[in-house]
Amino acid sequence: MGEEDYYLELCDRPVHFEKANPVNCVFFDEANKQVFAVRSGGATGVVVKGPDDRNPISFRMEDKGEVKCIKFSLENKILAVQRTSKTVDFSNFIPDSSQLEYTQECKTKNANILGFCWTSSTEIVFITDQGIEFYQVLPEKRNLKLLKSQNINVNWYMYCPEGAVILLSTTVLGNVLQPFYFRAGTMSKLPKFEIELPAVPKSTKLNLSERDIAMATIYGQLYVLFLRHHSRTSNSTGAEVVLYHLPREGACKKMHILKLNRTGKFALNVVDNLVVVHHQDTETSVIFDIKLRGEFDGTVTFHHPVLPARSIQPYQIPMAGPAPVTSQSPVPCKLYSSSWIVFQPDIIISASQGYLWNLQVKLQPIVNLLPDKGRLMDFLLQRKECKMVILSVCSQMLSESDRAALPVIATVFDKLNHEYKKYLDAEQSYTTALEAGQSRSSPLLKRPVRTQAVIDQSDMYTHVLSVFTEKDVPHKFVIAVLMEYIRSLNQFQIAVQHYLHELVIKTLVQHNLFYMLHQFLQYHVLSDSKPLACLLLSLESFYPPAHQLSLDMLKRLSTANDEIVEVLLSKHQVLAALRFIRGIGGHDNISARKFLDAAKQTEDNMLFYTIFRFFEQRNQRLRGNPNFTPGEHCEEHVAFFKQVFGDQALMRPTTF
């Protein structure tokens, strides 16, 4: 398989740590995404590394027994270490504060601490087998204050730092989950919910394992993902992932089922709002997108993999060490290894090899794996880094080898402009609210974020349409595509930029399709604009009616006559400007200097001669003398005329 076939890859700059061995224990903290390598209980050193830390944190601590759990508070201010089932030890890492350790015992008698989670830089939750205890840590006093506690039998727990939600497994079977939400010193109990087990359990022992549950934020919503190894319906083979939506308010609801159509060992990640399911037996992965249309049965939506199963792209482990030593070739990494541990949302850790990777999605290979262009666009528009890939798809569907049918092209344009319009509307609402002074009364007013899914007219013009019109493509197809894009913009009530109209006109003129140009203008397919009117004026030598079409357009735009003259002169349409002014009978009052300046700027000597002669004749007619008066400030133009054409070319006064 070529590189263009793999749509998942491990990041190229993994976090490297000392591999796990009898002396070195490795821990991972999901909130800070940090790996702790603890040697000999910390006595010979602790090294902490995170994905963004270029400088790892290193320190030593006294070996007071086996470390069960070790985590920093947010911002690395306080370190918490659990060594027994009853207590957690704390050390301050705040500059100028006491370095002495302090300890907190769990409040509930006979309870065992299963673990702990930091919910802020000074708030921590102990999870015991008998409940949950929420504390505030007071580093300067070196003690903790209990904020709230709740008694409940707990089998195991899970923490989602993005959503600040802790999930507790309760009841004998373990399938009743109780969520708690933490925010700024408060702990809220959310409604509990039951996970439907694949079949009626035969025994009354723990049936739901934490291995089969994950929590992740997908499209801004928190979901609990349950890996059900056998479908509840007997006619369906294979495992499935059930997604329960966990809102801040209201009950948790089963929303989506992802059909895996296979059995075995699975692991879940979430990358760029896609659910990635790894299958160990076949060493492949599949991706699901819950935003794409699935089969809805009235309560849940069933989804199939977006693409065929593929392995993660083969990965070479770089040899560590100084440059001269690393001349030996890099070692291929064993993918889907049984020593891999997966964490949410996108982390894969190999403790035996000492690496932490972020899993990434590659969009370019997907373009050729998803033939349905409409579905491909729906998929790409939801991805973070999608702009250049979308533009390449647009170019590809207009290319000779992969040309798409016009209805498909129209569908793609509509999908792009739907996103574009959504952004323009949001921007408009924001501006209106800002002008109305709502920003002071409503602090929630935020400027809409322009994501990569917003493909505007300049993007399409620069990367796709202008390139496409220069290629050797049948002109009928070129015009059809341009008109389709303009139709789509009009359908979404997006003002069409003049450069798109110019592109249409230039294409029509190039192929002498003046009758079509006339129709487009007559039926207002091309919207009126000043730049367009000027372009039409410049076409007069090829197509004489263009002059009148242009003037009509300027009149419809209610442009003042002197403004029309300015527009024409700025476009070096000096003769057109003169004709226009004569047409409305204003040529006796215009400034000769302005026209002579414009004519000289064109560097066309014959044009300058024509304009100069026109004003000489006007002077003769109005004053009986062709010479310019000092008040007209045309001395330099007279000198230039003499220099180019000689004194004898000047008009002589007519005597009667």
TrEMBL record:
<protein>
    <submittedName>
        <fullName>Regulator of MON1-CCZ1 complex isoform X1</fullName>
    </submittedName>
</protein>
<dbReference type="InterPro" id="IPR040371">
    <property type="entry name" value="RMC1"/>
</dbReference>
<dbReference type="InterPro" id="IPR049040">
    <property type="entry name" value="RMC1_N"/>
</dbReference>
<dbReference type="GO" id="GO:0031902">
    <property type="term" value="C:late endosome membrane"/>
</dbReference>
<dbReference type="GO" id="GO:0010506">
    <property type="term" value="P:regulation of autophagy"/>
</dbReference>
<dbReference type="GO" id="GO:0035658">
    <property type="term" value="C:Mon1-Ccz1 complex"/>
</dbReference>
<dbReference type="Pfam" id="PF07035">
    <property type="entry name" value="RMC1_C"/>
</dbReference>
<dbReference type="Pfam" id="PF21029">
    <property type="entry name" value="RMC1_N"/>
</dbReference>
<dbReference type="InterPro" id="IPR009755">
    <property type="entry name" value="RMC1_C"/>
</dbReference>
<dbReference type="InterPro" id="IPR036322">
    <property type="entry name" value="WD40_repeat_dom_sf"/>
</dbReference>
<feature type="domain" description="Mic1">
    <location>
        <begin position="383"/>
        <end position="630"/>
    </location>
</feature>
<feature type="domain" description="Regulator of MON1-CCZ1 complex N-terminal">
    <location>
        <begin position="26"/>
        <end position="144"/>
    </location>
</feature>
<dbReference type="GO" id="GO:0005765">
    <property type="term" value="C:lysosomal membrane"/>
</dbReference>
